[in-house]
């Protein structure tokens, strides 16, 4: 997606050979026109798959996942990162490490919002090592829903997440793949 | 907003005289048509105010805030609840208690996304005691931005948040006001 590449070149802040900060478009501030275009692109990729639900995880995946859900006119479910007072006991829960946060978190989806009648696209902002995605995939499998595939805004293809999930037979669509951040330079695939 | 009242009657789960769970439309699953309508209503209310930015806080406020930002075609900024590796040091940070989570959290907005040229509408899913909203208002004031007002999906008007913020001179627009949950019954204002 050329528009997203341009924006990443404009606003991306390279923090190390492994980390690029995209707070200006994904992780803190959001451009509605760009986000709507990204949602539309995910919708186009999965349009013929009879999607019944979009799944993401709080927080940065929500705007793009919502834009895709709008376009496909299906509900969005966002996995929660831990229990609050308002949370059901009837949940699918998985423990995953977070690459950017450097901590382990529990992610959960209430059983009432995901079941064997669902055909799900999993949308997220980044894929690096793929730990969060794998946790969400386990939740989808446990629910009995069909996983149609992933929609990722930015795949860091120098990390193994996208590749290993593809190798496991899951469709992974990334709008942009970053092959390298070495030397403070963004190289797209 | 009549449509939202209907949905609350349909899906709301009353957990106590003070807590109603709206996971099915706000806090875990999202209906894109309803959310888009809510965003459109916030946009209508603030249309003539030359809004430059929508501010919310992760996570449940993001879909409705995004829908409002789409409609007004201005950027959305979502305050973060704590620091991750990817977070700037140059931030406005405030400590607030959370009514539903029963804990204290630090909320932060990067200085690069909010400044004295901004005219801001603060959007959130719920207002109860108003602690999160007051924290965000302090951040807006510190940035020098103009606070145009609040847009709240569900005001629990039997708790003091909305009232005290209005009394401080801030415009507060709530799409729905719940006057009472006593006896397991939702009474709208």
Automatic annotation (TrEMBL), chains A, B:
Gene3D superfamilies: 3.40.50.2020. It catalyses: XMP + diphosphate = xanthine + 5-phospho-alpha-D-ribose 1-diphosphate. InterPro entries: PRTase-like (IPR029057), PRTase_dom (IPR000836), Pur/Pyrimidine_PRTase (IPR050118), Xanthine_PRibTrfase (IPR010079). It is found in: Cytoplasm. Its EC number is 2.4.2.22. Pathway: Purine metabolism; XMP biosynthesis via salvage pathway; XMP from xanthine: step 1/1. It is an enzyme of class 2 (transferase). Keywords: Cytoplasm, Glycosyltransferase, Purine salvage, Transferase. Residues 37-156 form the Phosphoribosyltransferase domain. 5-phospho-alpha-D-ribose 1-diphosphate binds at residues 128-132. GO terms for molecular function: xanthine phosphoribosyltransferase activity. It comes from the Bacteria. Xanthine binds at residues 27, 156. It holds the Pfam family Pribosyltran. Its main location: cytoplasm. Belongs to the purine/pyrimidine phosphoribosyltransferase family. Xpt subfamily. Converts the preformed base xanthine, a product of nucleic acid breakdown, to xanthosine 5'-monophosphate (XMP), so it can be reused for RNA or DNA synthesis. PANTHER family: HYPOXANTHINE/GUANINE PHOSPHORIBOSYLTRANSFERASE, XANTHINE PHOSPHORIBOSYLTRANSFERASE. Homodimer. This is Xanthine phosphoribosyltransferase. It comes from Paenibacillus ehimensis. The gene is xpt.
């Amino acid at each position: 997606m050329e528009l997203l590449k341009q924006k990443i070149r404009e606003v991306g802040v390279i923090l190390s050979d492994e980390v690029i900060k995209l707070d200006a478009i994904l992780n803190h501030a959001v451009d509605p026109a760009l986000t709507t275009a990204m949602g539309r692109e995910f919708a186009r990729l999965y349009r013929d798959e009879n999607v019944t639900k979009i799944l993401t995880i709080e927080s940065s995946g929500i705007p793009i996942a919502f834009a895709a859900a709008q376009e496909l006119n299906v509900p969005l479910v966002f996995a929660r990162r831990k229990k609050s007072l308002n949370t059901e006991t009837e949940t699918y829960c998985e423990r995953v490490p977070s690459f950017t946060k450097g901590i382990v978190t529990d992610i959960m989806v209430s059983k009432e919002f995901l079941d064997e009648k669902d055909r799900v696209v999993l949308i997220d902002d980044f894929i690096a090592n793929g730990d969060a995605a794998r946790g969400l995939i386990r939740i989808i499998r446990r629910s009995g829903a069909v996983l149609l595939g992933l929609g990722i805004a930015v795949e860091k293809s120098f990390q193994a997440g996208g590749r290993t999930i593809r190798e496991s037979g899951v469709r992974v669509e990334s709008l942009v793949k970053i092959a390298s951040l070495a030397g403070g330079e963004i190289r797209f695939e």
